[in-house]
Amino acid sequence: MELLTTDDVARMLKVNKRTIYYWVERKQIPHIKINNKLIRFRPVDIQEFIEKNLVNPDGVDETVDEVVDEILSKINS
Q1: Beta-ladder partners of 34
Q2: DSSP conformation letters of 17-69
Q3: What mean pLDDT do residues 7-14 have?
Q4: In sequence order, what are the residues at sequence separation of 6 or more whose Cβ sits closer than 8 angstroms to the Cβ of residue 39?
């Protein structure tokens, strides 16, 4: 299984790396700690995080799956 780094997730979500660390510290985003130092993320957890936090206003045609697929394809390319 490929794990994502903090840089990967920050790029994927288009936020600053410090935001990812803040979310990790507050346990707002699922993560794995390796040797109580390295932080890694499972792609499936990030996908669920996106789905959980998606705000879908009226008139938006994209589904959650389309948004997630687009983001994951950018990561995998």
Answers
A1: 38
A2: HHHHHHHHHTT-S--EEETTTEEEB-HHHHHHHHHHH----TT----HHHHHH
A3: 95
A4: 5, 6, 21, 24, 31, 32, 33
- Tokens 């009226």 map to which residue? 58
Cβ–Cβ contacts within 10 Å for residue 60, how many?
A: 10
Helix (H/G/I), strand (E/B), else coil: 12: helix
Helix (H, G, I), strand (E, B) or coil at 9: helix
The pLDDT of residue 70: 81
pLDDT in tens, 15-61: 999 999 999 999 999 999 999 989 999 999 999 999 888 876 665 55
What is the DSSP code (8-state) at residue 3?
Answer: P
CB atoms within 10 A of CB 30: 15
Do 46 and 12 meet the contact criterion of CB atoms below 8 Å apart? yes
